[in-house]
Amino acid sequence: MTTIGGCVLTSDTFRGAIGGITARDLRRIVCAVAVAGLVPFLSACATLSRLPAVPLAMAHGSAPLGVTQSRFYADGDVEAVEAIARDVLEKRRQFEGASFGKGKFATNHFLAISGGGDDGAFGAGLLLGWTERGDRPSFRIVTGISTGALSAPFAFLGPEYDAKLKAVYTDTSAEDIFMKRILLAAVTDDAMTDTTPLRNLIAGYIDQKMVARIAEEYDKGRLLLIATTNLDQARSVIWNIGAIAKSNDPRARELIIDVLRASASIPGVFPPVMLNVKIEGKNYEEMHVDGGTVAQAFLYPPAFSIKKTAVLAPRAGSRKAYVIRNGRLFRPEQSVKKQTLAIVGQTISTMTAASGVNDTYRIYLTTKRDNVDFNLAYIDDEFATPYTGPFDKTYMRKLFQYGYEKGKAGYAWHKTPPGYQE
Length: 422
Prior knowledge:
By secondary structure, the chain is α/β, with parallel strands linked by helices. The chain is 39% helix and 15% strand. The protein has 13 helices and 13 strands. Strands 3, 4, 5, 8, 9, 10, 11, 12 and 13 form a 9-stranded mixed β-sheet that branches.
C-alpha cells in the first residue's frame, strides 16, 4: 500500500481492469492527478506526440486493411450494417444450399457478452456448463465488449475452444494483464499501467489457426463483433472480426489482437491502442479505448432492424438473444466516507453499474421490436465469495465454478430487464 498526498493506493486498484471503470480505478487516477498538481513544471513536457486524429467527417474514407466491411459506427451507419446483413445472409444461403433455414441453424441464436473485468469468469463458466448440459446452441452472432471481447472469439468458435476459454479465467493473474507504472505516469505517460502482458496473453491465444477458423465461420454467414471506443471522435466503433480474418492480409491477426486489446483498455488505467490509417495520402492516428466507455454490452445497433432484413430471408427461422452480464445488478452498498475521493469514486462505480442495467433495457426494447426472444443472465447475490484483489485466481475459479454449475443445471434466464414488468 502506498500513501501520497493523503491518497491511499492499494493492490486492488484495478478491480475494473478489462471491463469498466470502478471506484478504485478512479481513486488511483484522481490521486495521480492530485500529485501532478504538486509538480506543475512537468506539464510542459507531459504530452506524448502523436499523428493527427481522423476527423469524423473523413472517417468513412478509412477502411483498415482495405476491408470495406471491417467496421461501422454503433450510433449510425445503418446502410453499412444493412450491407453486412445482406452479405452474411448470402453467405449463409450459399453454405447451407437446399437446407437453408433448416437444421441446427433453424433458430438463429445471438449472444452478447458484457464487460466486467475478472467477473468475466462467470460468463466463461456459464458457457462451459451449458456445453456440459448438451444444449448449448451455435450462435449466429456473438458480440463482446471489454472482458466480453476476450471471451467472444472462444464463444463464437464453440466447444472446441472451451478449454482455452476456461484457462483465460482460471489461470490468469494480475501480472498476466498489466505492469504498474510510477504514479507520475499520470502526467508523463498515457496510462497508469503498461499492458504489454495483456497483449502477449491475447496473442498467445489468437494464433493464425484461430484467425482461419473465424474466417471459415464468417463464410458460413456468422458474425463476430467487437466494440471499441474511438476517443477522438467520442463514438462507439463495432468491428466485424470475421471480415478482417477473411481478408487474408498478413496484418489481419495483428489488427484483431489490437482491437481486442483496445476493447479492454480502460482510459487512464490502461494505455489506449493507437491505429495508423491513411486517408487521401495523409497519415492519421486513431485512439481506441475500452468499448465499455460507451456501453457495457450490445447486440446490434437499435437503428438497424433485423425484422426488416428478415424479409430478405423468409425461411431464416426464429431468433433468440442471450445477454451475459458479467457482474451484479447493483454496486454493493457501503457506508461512504464523507470525503471527496470516496464520494466521487462510489458515484462513478454506481453510474457504471447503472449503465450496465440500462444497456439491458436498450437491448430488450430492440429485441422486442424485432420479435427476438430476450434472455438475460447475471451474477446473483447468492454468490458470496469476497473479492480479495485483481485477478485473484481463487476468486475467479470460484466464480467460474458458480457460472459452470448454473449453466450445467440449465440457467433460468431472465426474460425481461431488472425491474421491468410486461
